[in-house]
Amino acid sequence: MMNIYQHFREDEQSFIDQVIDWILQVENQYAPYLTNFLNPRQLFIVESIIGQYDTIYHQSFGGYEGAEQQRILIYPPYYEPTSNDFEITLFEINYPTKFAELSHGQIMGTVLGIGISRGNLGDILTDGERWQFFADEGMKDFILMNVNHVGRVNVHLEENSIENLVQKMDKWESEEIVVSSLRIDVILARALNVSRNRAKTLIKDQKVKLNWVEVERPDIDVEEYDILSIRGFGRVKIGTQQGITRKDNLVLKIEVIDRNT
């Protein structure tokens, strides 16, 4: 276990320590532990570490099949999880659809702006008109009490059931790109079809986030399951390396959502 750090980025070490603490808690107390909502990269890290333990099990769920942000339940062998163990609430945002428009970024900014953490907020979904989001069930009353507008639009939140989940408008589109390295500016340039200098400018202008954390340098290497959010362009999900070309370039699988974030 001491060598686990070498498989991940240096800035992920504190999260790895946290994951190990969760596992030890389950081992010592012989009781399940529920995480906050985790992004795909964090999910990958947790699952990689838990896989090294023979007597620790886990399940992940984000409110619906294919959720991007998910909570992980870590539990001992005797425990049999149910969907209620994940403590997730679905909110419907009621607003004057004929006279106003909402956006993913506005909704996230509003919910986080009332003082809850990113880990308390799950996926934000839309079918082009209706908007919904998932959140930690323990924050339900606080969210209902404090969210009454998104941007300048007056809204009314209500709890909804999974049976009324909207059909997502956003769809990830898979493609393969050829890159010289895994540097974030190289990936951005190829994925967005812009110049390398343009990619560096996007980073310098604070328009790029890596797993929802603002990127400050263009020389950071991306890893599998990372998600890049680029204001004005959309999002890019990093997939697996598919091979190497004759010129020693990398063939990388990515997924893209082309929309403002």
Automatic annotation (TrEMBL):
Record keyword Lyase present: no
Origin: domain of life: Bacteria
InterPro entries referenced in this protein's UniProt entry, alphabetically: Nucleotide-bd_a/b_plait_sf, RqcP2_N, RqcP2_RBD, S4_RNA-bd, S4_RNA-bd_sf
SUPFAM superfamilies referenced in this protein's UniProt entry, alphabetically: Alpha-L RNA-binding motif
Domain RNA-binding S4: 182-244
Pfam hit, one: S4
PROSITE patterns in the record: S4 (PS50889)
PANTHER family to which the protein is assigned, alphabetical: MITOCHONDRIAL TRANSCRIPTION RESCUE FACTOR 1
Keyword RNA-binding in record: yes
Annotated GO MF terms: RNA binding
Lineage: Bacteria, Bacillati, Bacillota, Bacilli, Lactobacillales
Originating species: Atopostipes suicloacalis DSM 15692
Keywords: RNA-binding
Entry protein name: RNA-binding protein YlmH, contains S4-like domain
